[in-house]
Amino acid sequence: MTQGNEKLINELTLARSGVFSILNRDDGDDQNWETTFSIGERYFYVQGVAARGRPHGVDPDVLLALQTLFFEAGCPEDDTVECTAYRLLRLTPLGTRGNAYARLRESLLRLEGVSWLTRVSHQHGGRFRGMTETNRLIDRISVRDTSLSASGEGGTIDASAPLRVTFSRHFALSIREGFYQILDAELLSDLKQPTARSLYRVLQAHRVGDDGSLARELPVIMAAWREATGLSGQRPNNVKRTLDGAHAHLIAAKYLRDVSYEGSGDSTRIKYEFEGEVDPELVDLLTAMKVSRPVAEALVTDHPERVRSAVQLVQRRLDEGYKPRSIAATVVDAIRNPDKYIPAPKPAAPAARAKSRPVPEHQPRLLPLSREESLAMIRSLLRVKLGRLPRDEVLKRLTEVDDREVERLAAASRGQEDLVKAVEEITGSQP
Fold it and tell me: Which Pfam families does UniProt cross-reference here (predicted)?
């Protein structure tokens, strides 16, 4: 098994093992739990410790927002996301008003406080063989509190103050592989119910076979599914009621084709049928670009019409000398965010060269970058040129430069002048 696949299995195991409860309400009394269950041919043993309650509700959305910001920043070598609470909340369903900042604080603390041991095994000749792993998501968080009680409880986060979240090393490596993008951002946005979004994550993880393919059907037993969805301790009728609400949203969003029940109580059999068919040719195109098979199948299922043009675009840029940190992540981004790419207009040929070869009408090019995207590109390229991280005071000064200076640095990053020298002149410090 390759190192990349080890990261992949770890991420799948997080979603499969019920560490996050799909419950939306705040009854995070589960500080310790232990469970054994099987889904398909996989057998799970899970021990969890959650110092501030088991993650639930919007917590997966907050984690996804942190992953997104980390990836957009070029996956910093210190494994740390730096932003404001306002910026982070803009990427979640919480909004930026009312008690959103207090809920964000609680969510971050729950995410930092959870760790777990997972053993996933398969049966071979009457014996079980598998892998035992211990994991955590976040090593450290730093936020500026307001409105705390005398005991330091409660409180909210200052909307504009710096917020720092440092991922565990192993989790940061998984993000660098672009694995979290297996989830359909558009579908998550359409699903307004937190329970439906959480169930989508669990279903998508359990669909992935050992060969990386996505199952078209998934049969489960109620007792095992209760553990896999973090609904431990709930009665079968309450579990079914919670699931039914999420099922309705997932069917309406055309992720599920149908859900059927057979039997009663803990032995009830649930069968999930998924929408969409996978074009094997498109999957092969993506796997040839180093996209893992489960991610490729998810992309082909969600956006088959975008695959060929995205692959052609990335391949053209590679042929021109572009060297991304991750080819797979670049392809995924091109498919997930097509608005970043538009066809270049066909230039009018000069009269004297009327017979010259025409430019293809659908040759893609990047849209102009935003200020934030330009600065992220500048920081990443500067790090490559220096062979190390730039000094902290230089990075801080870069966030404060005006738009004219950003444009100059962006031009320098494209080779129009020496980038290191331009940074030194603008910031007044050696990078």
Answer: RPA
Instruction: Give the model confidence (pLDDT) of 276-332 as tens digits.
Output: 777 888 888 998 998 877 788 878 877 888 899 889 888 888 888 888 878 888 888
Average pLDDT value for the chain: 81
pTM: 0.65
Range 384-407 average pLDDT: 76
Residues 288 and 268 in one domain: no
pLDDT of residue 302: 77
Q: Are residues 321 and 355 in the same domain?
A: yes
Confidence bin at 369 (pLDDT 50/70/90): low
Same domain (yes/no): 239, 360: no
Give the pLDDT mean for 372-383.
Answer: 71
pLDDT range class, residue 406, cuts 50, 70, 90: confident
With helix as H, strand as E and coil as C, how does the chain read? CCHHHHHHHHHHHHHHCCCCECCCCCCCCCCEEEEEEEECCEEEEEEEEECCCCCECCHHHHHHHHHHHHHHCCCCCCCEEEEEHHHHHCCCCCCCCCCHHHHHHHHHHHHHHEEEEEEEEEEECCEEEEEEEEEECEEEEECCEECCCCCCCCCEECCCCEEEEEECHHHHHHHHCCHHHHCCHHHHHHCCCHHHHHHHHHHHHHHECCCCCECCEEEEEHHHHHHHCCCCCCCHHHHHHHHHHHHHHHHHCCCEEEEEEECCHHHCEEEEEECCCCCHHHHHHHHCCCCCHHHHHHHHHHCHHHHHHHHHHHHHHHHCCCCCCCHHHHHHHHHHCHHHEEECCCCCCCHHHCCCCCCCCCCEEECCCCHHHHHHHHHHHHHHHHCCCCCHHHHHHHCCCCHHHHHHHHHHHCCCCCHHHHHHHHHCCCC
The answer to whether residues 178 and 317 belong to one domain is: no
Domain housing 137: 3-274
Looking at the fold, whether 25 and 152 belong to one and the same domain comes out as: yes
Same domain, residue pair 343 and 385: no
User: What pLDDT, on a 0 to 100 scale, did the predictor assign at position 358?
Assistant: 42
Assign 413 a pLDDT band (cuts: 50, 70, 90): low
What is the length of the chain?
431
Whether 17 and 151 share a structural domain: yes
